[in-house]
Structure formats: structure tokens, C-alpha cells
Amino acid sequence: MRNLIYIAAVFFSVLIFPSKSETAELERKTAWKGTVDISEKITVPAGGILTILPGTKVVFHKGGEIVCRNGTLDAVDAEFESDYRSENHFFSFESSNVKFKNCIFRNMYPGRARYSYDKNRSFFYALYGTFSMTGCSLEKCSAIELVWIEKSLIENNLFNDVYQRALTFRICRNVVLLRNIFEAGNESSELLFLNCVDDSSVILNRFYGNVRAISLKDKSKGNAVISNSMFNSSIGIHVQGQAKNNLFFGNLIFKPSSSGLNFISAGKNNIISNCVVWGAKNNGIYIGKTNDLIVRNSVFANCKYGINISNESEASVIEHNIIWNNNRDEKTIIEKLRLSKNLIEDPLFVDPENGNFRLQMKSFGYNENSPLLNAGYPDGSSIGLFLSFKSQK
Amino acid sequence: MKKIPMFLTVFLAYSVLTILNAAPDLVPMPKSYEQTGGNFICDNKTIYIEKGNRQCEIAADEIVKKIKELSGTPGEVKAVGKTSDSGIYILPCSNSSAQSLIKEFSLKITAEDPGPQGYIIHTSPERLIIIGSDNIGTLYGAMTFCQMLEKSVKNGVQIISADVYDKPDYRYRSEMSFDRGLEHWATGEKDKTEAYKAGIDTLMRFKVNMINDYHTLFAKMDIRTVSPETKRFIKEINQYAIDRGIYPGTWLNTNIATEGVDKGIDFENWDCIRYRKKGLLYCWSRDKIAEKKINECMELLKECNFRFLFLHPIDGGGIEDPELWSHRCKQCKGKWKDDERWKASIHQYNIWADVLKKKCPEIMFVSPIYPYAATYGSIDRFPGVNKNTWKQNSVDYWTKVNKGLDPVIIPQSWIAQRGLMDKYRQHFKGRSLAIYSHSFVPLGYFGTWHRFNKTNYYGNPNDIFTLNGGCDRYEKWLNVICDCEYTWNTNAPGSEYFTGLYYDAEKDHTEPKEIIDEWVPRACRALYGKELGEKIAPIYQAGVQNLYIMDPGHGLQLANKQRRKPLAEVDPTKKDEKSEGSVAAPDIEDTASRMALQVKAAEKAMKALENALPNINSMDKYLRKSFMYFYKRMPLWYMTARARYACYVASDLQRDGMYESAAGVLEAGLKSFEKDYAHAHKILESVKDEPDLNKAGLFAKRGGDIKPAPEEVRKMLNDQLESSKVVLKPRRPGPSVMVGIYKGLGAEGTKAFLDQFKNVKTDIIDSLTLSVLDRYDCIFIMQTSSVKKDDYFFNLPRYVNESGGGVIFQHEMCGFGRFAFGQKTPFPEISPCASGRKDALEVIMEKENPVLPDMKKGANTTHMYYDHIIPKVGENGFAVVVDKDKEPIVVAGTSGYGKVVFDGNVNITKDDKESTLTDFNAAIAKGAVEWMTGVKLKKK
Residue A18 domain-assigned? Predict the structure, then answer.
């Protein structure tokens, strides 16, 4: 009797809750317009092209995701949002070409992570292929995660109220990150994460919020991190784990709540040049178990410690820098630094508390020339953010 | 007479050739070549062949063709009768007339010596004798003879009299791809068949005798998917090849069913090994299903005239679970225990062998028996693996399999170091061996790794050596021919033993000199003709690494993979971290000097191509395609190498902090790029009607081989230049954009508007001294008369030009007549002055521009006040918006490091009141600040 009831229950459940197709494969060439509601897995077929036309709004409901392998996604002036917290990525791409231009993404983030290793889940995941995102706005979204991508361009985007992380790159090359703005949110852990990334450029980006701005990890090499500005981060730039031959040039780290630059067990031949760390609550730069680091033409001022080097770090070249007004800089360290061509004096910035790190110059109506003028390496260049600052004759 | 060791004969032959004048270009070099004095005149000489012997007929045709090419007069072709007549005799040694000649001249040739594919050539005053140990040997003798033919002013077509003895070391050697090699000559041809045949003829002339790689013509590597039309085509071409001594071979898998081909099989619920993506099902014990597939395949192999079957077992599992044996089904497990994979292999292979012997015994059966690398015979390769597991799955397995395997089956292994292959051969005693040369992607289109071909040669001519890696995607000829040289003569000059690093990207495109300086010119002369070949040789000698030039990161990643894990490409389990070989060489670093070498190499090759161009009409149309492949691309490779070099030098300078110099290098690089691109474009235009080896063309989005395209190279230079210049900029906004509003009409309204943004701080200022200006990222100059001339015409330009600030001039401050200083502005190159005033409200976006990126072309709006000033557009300015008469209302431009906007509006209402900005006034205030500072303003 019990078995009959069981069988009946199964039978009726099939009638009442008919099994729903869990995936839908699009036509080879599909264009979306208007409002598109997604509540199942939508697959772009191999060789297929999904074009999301200007003005389209794509809403992800429970169960909704877009997957694509060996296909193309092209979205311009479109909006994407979600009304549920997905366990999976909203977008999963493999060996595909993806392009987002002038799009808006809202609330694309996962539910609360169950495990600590799971805490940086991305809403967008791409493995292989190419990726381009320009002029987009992301509001309360988790990471865009790119893995094994040979070439990607991320330019002029706004990442606002970042959920966990804004961008994750793993084993990528030729990433160009240019002129983006990152604003941390309450749930942010860090903003930009590069793991085993080579030959990439991170230029002219602006980071806001009390989280780690840029992490460069493991065997990342040959990257150029140039002219970025980090305001009130916890750590401005964190480098760890065999990352080597990277250039950090002209970065401004303004009042970080911990350290401006953190090198921990990093690889060799990284160069820090013409950076400014102002007002770090802890270290201007911390060098831990890292050898052969070059630090020059930079300013570490108004921090707790200007330059903090662990005993296990060797053979770093620290010269032509300014270390000034740091609370806990010991005399011995100061003297040691002065001897190796560093300056211990007021850099005479124009308006540092308002983030203006231009140099005072007599020719611009100031009383004195900044000591940073023409004091850098190579001869004739200046210390600080503006390498080619020269005094008017 | 004391017998000369084989390795010396080749050396001596080379020596003789280099010493004697006017030595012919023989490729591959015969084992023995000895000039006997004088010349043999070939014009009008009757050619005697064995009647009905296909190879003799082909040989005669080739000789006739060659004599005609040399503007000579070939004699008649006749069936041989008596042998005393003057002429050219082309005969197999089994022929009775050949036997007469052998006796008459005491020639040393039998069916066994030199043996299959071997031949002799003997020159007497009136008779030229070519005798082969077999028919193919006879044909090859004729091919060598063709290479000996030369044009003489005095004698017409002749050869330098010589005696030749020759035979191959490997009887089955080198390899040309059917579908991705021969196919390229057919691109754009109406008669595809003729193109393939031309390729086969070329292979024959250089004694290359293997073709493979058809499987793009069969879906899922299953020959049963071949279409009837393709089948007919393959059959015809393969037969053509066989007649010319070439062995067509193809790969099949040991899978017993293929999705889409085999019906009535539950693919979804298959319980044995399944490759889901490829739709292939495997099993060792379902014999009925297996036999059906095998029979069908064998019938097709026979029908299509194949002569080699390469049968691939399940490719996975590595040393610990070879062929994924542990995943076999219950039925297989019931028949064979875990340590009895060898029995299953024997069972499986012998089914194939039985069918093959019944249906197509002429086909040779080769299989890479898993694990198919001799290197697996050393436990040192597997430090993390249990010794018993290793032994069971490698050495014991091989020995046991060998005992039960049908004698027709030839095992195949990747090339391996000598010692390892010695051991491997012991496990397969009594069998020939197939060597699968290294599979890798080279950085350049020609290289010398073929010199390693002797490594696994043991003197068994029945061994097989197939070329599998190292060819350019499209142009393979010289690599294929070189591979044949070093398999025909494993001891050819320059030959070496492979000891660990098969491909060295630092050396293999320019060394050793025996190949680059001596063999390459000889081969080019043999392939392209004497005069043209001499001119073309530098293209191959230059060492151009086209893949590296076009994608240095990817290229070096491939090259370094070889150096870090030398056997990466030949390890059956590529991802097996436990099977680590030691590092063979340090990584190649990508440097400016490395790219500089490529610039020089491409330049050298380009010059050679130009030098050869006048002679191209002497080439046949297929070789002409190969030439054109280089002719079209070399200027693009050169252009890209030069651009990359500029970027590399700039990066080095940047690392040293020399950004200004870096910018200079990049600017010069851009100029050179434009020149190089123009030249490349001119070349491409001049040969645009010439067919290309790549049917998609150079620049096609799908399938084009020139990537990055020139526009992308230009962008690369521009991007790097911009990033160099970026760091030279003397201003960077802080956490908030600092805006100074010089007091005047509309200052309060402007401040009220900008204070709505959370990342903006505004001050109304009353001084334009430099130290005041310097505190702000941009300045609004509102309409006022309270301004000092020096401040205006001296400080403002310095502020903009030197410190990168931005200035917005409003209304009459645009140099309107009533303005304090008349019709002039501090930035005349952007806007010299205003041309008038207009009572109008409408504002139109005529052309999209960066100051108002959100306003689309054609959009219109209105401004607050009832009039506006009309600023003129200077030579460095552009109109941001216009009125309905198309006269500018706002003009902008860059000056020095900064930016300037001349805004003809005034930020007050129609009734002259201060008010928070609205309409266009708000848009231009926001847009101008964002444009000048590069920071997007965020509303509170």
C-alpha cells in the first residue's frame, strides 16, 4: 500500500510540476532587444553570435545564466541586472569573444559565501578567448573574472559599490586596464586582483575605499602599473609570491589605512619609481622577504613608518627618495637612507592634503623650490609623481 | 678494395661536390657521387625504358620535361631492345637488358644491393645508365639524374659525367600533409587535382615518400564519414602518389563506435571509455561492434589507396592509468584483471591485424602503443610514481604485448635519446620501429631540427621516420625536403644526436652552418632552379621567426615550454606533473635585442625577395605561390618587427625612468611604421591578383594569418606612446577635483552646480597668480573686467601649458569686442577671438567630440541666457557645439599639457540672475571639467 502511495505521489508530482527544460540553446545568430528575462541557462552555440542591441535590458531571475563556448557576445548600450543571488556565475564563457560597450550592470553578485575560499565569486567568468569592456558602469557587482585570456581591454569603466572584488585576472597576458574608477562598497575585500599575469598595463586608474586596491600575486611578471591613484585604501599595492620584473611608476597612494606599498616574498627586479605615499597609517612601503627591489624617486611622507624593511630582505636599491615626517622612523634608519642618496626633508608639495602633489617652484610664485626638483634618477629628473618636472630658468 | 664505411661515403660525396667545380645540386645527397671526367650530352638522346613499367614511364616523362625546361631537345622515349645504342637507359635491375648492361659495365647492383629504392647511375661516353634495385629505385635514379642536368652553352643540355650509388637510410621518411600542405597549392585553382599532383611530383623529385594528415577530411578522425566526392578525390591522388613511390597514410582511432556514424548504440549510457566531446566510444571486449567498424574502415582504406594505417589507442591516463584502463567496463574487467591490459591490447590489435591481412595486406600497420614514448622506459622520469606501477604499465607491458602482437604491427614512439630508445627497442625485438619526430610549433618558417633524425636510426631501413612538427602553417616545402635529406642520409653534414632539447629557438633558425650556409642554397637551387634558387636562399637563411614577430609572448611561451620540460610535446600525458624531465635550457627572455635581430632578418629576406622578383616568371605557378607567400608577408613581418622593437626600446627606457626619450623613440617608431606600412601596402597592391597559399587571405577575420593587422600595430605604438606621455603630464587630480572659479558673472551659480558633485571641491577665487592657479585642476574664468593683463596673458598660458591645468573662458572672455583686452585671447591657436554675439538659445551637437561624449550627433538643447558669444575656431581648436547657423558656441582644444574651452555662454538666467546651472550650461560645465581632468564627476 505504501508503495502505491509513493508511486502515485511521484506520478502526480510529475503532472503538477512538469519537468522544465533547464537549458535553452540560442540560434547561431541571435539579437536581443527590449526586455529579456532569463530564468534558465541560455547557451550560445559554438560558432554562434549573441548581439545585445542598444536599449536592451537583460534581467536575470532565479536559475538564469548565459553560457557560451566558442561563440561571441557583443553588447552595446545595454543593461544587465539580477534579482537573485546566484551560486553560479551569471555569465560563463569559454574560448569566446566578449565585448561590452557602454553597458550598465546592476546587482550582479552572489549569495553569501559558505566557505572562506569561496568568498570572491565572480558574476562573470571567462576562460580563454578575448574580452573587451569600455565605458561601462557596474553597480554593486562582484568580480569579472578572466582566466587564460591572451588579450583583454578594460577601459573607462566605473566599478561602483564593488561586491567582494571588481576584477580578477588569472594566468592572463596583455591585459590593458586604463582609466577605470573603482569604488569599494561595504562588501568589498579588494578591488583588483592579478594572479600570474604577464605583460599587462594598469594605467591611470583611480581607486577609492578602505580595501586593498591592487594585488599582484604569484608569477606575475613584466607588468606596468603606472600613474594610478589610490585614495584611502587599506593597502595601495600589494605584491606577493614570485611576482617579478614589474614596474610601478608614478602611483599615488593617499592616506592608506595600512600600507602604501607592500612587498611580501615578492620576486626579483621589481621597480618602484616616482611613487608617492602620503599619510599611511602604517608603512609607506613595507619590504618583507623580498630581494633586489629598486625603490627610487619616490616619496614616503607623513606615515607611521616611511620605509620598513624586514631582516630577510636583501640587496634592495633604495635611492633618490624622500622620506619625511614619518612618526616612527628611527634615527639610524634615517641616517642609513640619507647616506644612500635619499633626502630627508619637506618635499614642498603644493597642497598635499587635497591630493595636489605638484612641486612648489619659485617660477610659479612660491617662496622656494621643492627639493624634489631635479633630484631624482636619472640626472635631471625629479622625485615624485612628475618625473620631468623641471625648474624654469 | 677496402669497403668505405657508410658514414664516410656521404661525407666524401659532400666533399667531392664542394671541391669540384660546377657540381650539381643533388638533394638528397647520394651515398656516393664520383665524377668520371667529361660530360654526357643529353640533347636528342633516345630514352630507353622497360615497356609497361609505370615508374620508368614517369621517369622518362620527368627527364623529357626537365630537358625542355632547360631549352634542350629531348630524344624519343622507346622500349628497350638492344643495349648497344647510344642513349639514356632507365631500367630496374630485374630487366634483362639491365642485366646485360650490368654485365657489360661490371656494375654493382642487385635487388639486395643497394636494395629497395636504391639505384646506380653510370656514365659512359655514349650511354647513360640508370638502374634501380626495384622500380622505385629506378624512378629515384632518374630524379637524381634530373638534378644533374644542366644547360651548357657549348653542348646544350648535359650532365657532368659521374657514377652514383645511392639508397635511403630510412625507407619511409619525412611527411607532407595532404590536407594542410598539398592543399595550399590548390588554393584558388580551378583544377585542384592538378595542383595536388604538382605537389606529389615535387615530393617525388626530392624523394619524400610519405603523405599523411587527411583527417580534417574525415569528421572525428573516422574515415567512414568521408563523402563520396572526397573519397574519389583521395583515391585518385593516392594512386598518383603510389605510382611515384609515395606512401599515403592516415590515422584512425581504436574506438569501436563513432557518434553520428554507428547506429543502434546507446552513446549516452556507454559504460566503457567514452570521449564525449569527440563522440568516440571505446571498449576492448565488444568484438562484434569492433569488427564491424574495423571491416568498414579497412574497405575504405583499400578503396582510397592508402598504404599506411596509423592506429591510435586511447590517449590518456599517463603512466598510472594508461588508456584509462581503470575506467573500463564490467565486461572488460570480467575478461582481464587490472594487470592484464597487455592481454586486452593484444586482443584488440590482433583483430585489426587479422582484418587488415585479409582485406588489405598491402597496407603497413603502425600504432603508438600506449605509452608511446621510449622515455617512459626510465623510472627516473617518474619520481612520484610507485615502481611496480611504472614497471607494469611500461617495460613489462611492452615486453608482454610484443610477444602476442601480430608480426605485421609496427610500434611507434616519439623520438627519444639514444640510450632510452636502445632499451625501448629491446622490448619490441624483431620488429621495425616507427619514429614520430617531435611535435612542436616553431617560431620561424624554416629550421634545422631535422639534423637529429639520426638519433634513433639503427640501420634497419624498414624503420619509419615521420615528420610531425616544426612546419610553418602554410609553407612547408623546405622543412619537408630537409627532413628527407636527414632521413635519406642520417649522417649528412650537420647531423647530430638529440640529447634533450629538440627545438632551440635561439639557434635552430640560423645554425648549424652546414645546413644554413651549405644545404639551404643547394636545396633552393634544386627546388627553384639555379639562378632563382641562389636568390631565394637568403629568405630561408635569414632566420626570420615570423610567429615570434607577430606574437612574441605566445611564441616564447611555446619555445620556453620546450626548454623547461623538453619532452612536453612528446609526453603522452602532457599534464602529468609527476613525469618531469629536467630543464634543458634557461628560458629565453624577450628583449629589444632579440627583436632587433628579427628586424635585420626580415630586412635581409625582403631584399632577397625583391632581388628574386624579376625571375619569378621562370617558376611554375605552384612554386610561384610559395614565393608569393613570402613576398606578400615579409614587408608586414618587417613592419611589425620594427614597431615592436620601438616599443621594446621604449619600455627599457621607461624602466630606467627616461620617459621623454621613450616618447621620442615611439614617435620615431610611428613615423617608420607609416613608411613601412605604405611600402607593404604598395607590395600587396602590386601582387593583389597573385593567388595565396592561405585561402582566407592575409587579413581575414577568420582564418587570416596576419595578426595583429597593421592597424592594430599602429594602435600598439600609439597606446604605448600615450602611456609614455601620460607619465610626463605634470598634473593629477587628487581625491576630489579642485575647481577654482574666478569671480565674475555666474560664479555663484557655477559653484552651486559643481558643489552637487561629491568628488569636486570648488573655491571662488579672486587671484590669478600662478601659485593660486596651481592649487586647482581647472579654472573657470567668468565674465569680468576685473582681471590683470599679466595674469591673463602670462599666468594662464603657463598654468595650462606647463602645469597641465584646464581653463574655461566664458562669454566675453572669449575675446569679444567689449572684453577688457579687446579681440584677443591667451590661446589664439585654439580660438583667436570672438567673431560676434547672437541672440539665440538653441545649441546643436554637429559632430561628436570628447568634451560632451554623452551628447549624440544631431542632439540639441538650449542654454540659459538669451545670447551667446561666437568664438572663432583656431588652427588647433574644434567646435564643440554650434548654433542653428552652424556657428560655434563652444570651442575647445589642447595647449601644451593642458586643455582650454572657450564657452560663448554666460552662466546666468535670462533675467540676469545667478542660479544653479541648468540645460546646456550645466552640461558643458560638467563635460569640460571631466574632459580636462579625466575624472568623471559623481553626484552626491
Answer: no
Percent of chain B exceeding pLDDT 90 equals 78
Q: Who among B656, B657, B775 is closest to A351 (CB)?
A: B775
In a domain, A100, yes or no: yes
Q: A163 — contact with chain B (CB < 8 Å)?
A: no
pTM greater than 0.95: no
Distances (CA, A) of A6 to A1, A9, A11, A12, A235: 9, 5, 9, 10, 60
Question: Do residues B248 and B178 touch, judged by C-beta distance below 8 A?
Answer: yes
| Nearest chain B Cα distance for residue A114, angstroms | 31
Whole-number Å distance between alpha carbons of B307 and B645:
49
Establish if A293 touches chain B: CB-CB under 8 angstroms. no
Looking only at the bridges linking them, the beta strands covering A322-324 and A294-296 are: unpaired
Cell of B749: 551659480
Question: Does residue B579 or residue B127 have the better pLDDT?
Answer: B127
pLDDT band at B440 (very low <50, low <70, confident <90, very high): confident
Q: What CATH number is given to the structural domain containing A73?
A: 2.160.20.10
- C-beta of residue B162 within 8 angstroms of C-beta of residue B148: yes
Provide the phi-psi class of A173: left if phi over 0, else alpha when psi is between -120 and 50, else beta.
beta
Q: Does residue B243 register a pLDDT over 70? A: yes
Check CB contact of B32 with chain A, cutoff 8 Å. Answer: no
Best CA proximity match to B807, nearest among B837, B790, B827: B827
Looking at the complex, report in whole angstroms how far the Cα of residue B849 sits from the nearest Cα belonging to chain A.
15
Alpha-carbon torsion angle A166, A169, A173, A176, nearest 10: 0
The answer, for B897 touching chain A at a CB cutoff of 8 Å, is no
**Residue B39 bridge partners (DSSP):** B160
Distance from CA of A330 to the nearest CA of B (A): 30
| B657 shares contact with chain A (CB less than 8 Å) | yes
Residues of A in contact with B761 (CB under 8 A): 354
Instruction: Give me the mean pLDDT over the B711-728 stretch.
Output: 85
C-alpha angle B375-B381-B385 in degrees, rounded to nearest 5: 125
- Domain membership of residue A223 (yes or no) is yes
Give the C-alpha separation, B228 to B230, whole Å: 6
Q: Is B660 in Cβ contact with A199 (below 8 Å)?
A: no
Q: Is the distance from CB of B200 to CB of B491 less than 8 angstroms?
A: no
Min Cα separation A63/chain B (Å): 25
Number of domains in chain A: 1
Counting one residue from A and one from B, how many pairs have CB atoms under 8 Å apart?
107
What are the tens digits of pLDDT across the range B381-395?
A: 888 889 999 999 999
pLDDT for A249-282, tens place per residue?
A: 999 999 999 999 999 999 989 999 999 999 999 9
Instruction: Kindly list the structural domains of chain B, giving each domain's residue range(s) and its CATH number in brackets, ordered by start.
Output: 6-166 (3.30.379.10), 437-451+488-578+585-728 (no CATH), 737-933 (3.40.50.880)
Range of the domain at A60: 28-296
Q: Choose from B661, B732, B940 for mutation: most chain A CBs within 10 A.
A: B732
Residues in chain A with CB shorter than 8 Å from the CB of B734 are 229, 231, 252, 254, 354-357
pLDDT digits (tens, 9 = 90+) for B737-790: 999 999 999 999 999 999 999 999 999 999 999 999 999 999 999 999 888 888
Q: Which of A341-355, B74-88, B585-599, B720-734 has the lowest mean pLDDT?
A: B720-734
In a domain, residue A389? The reply is no
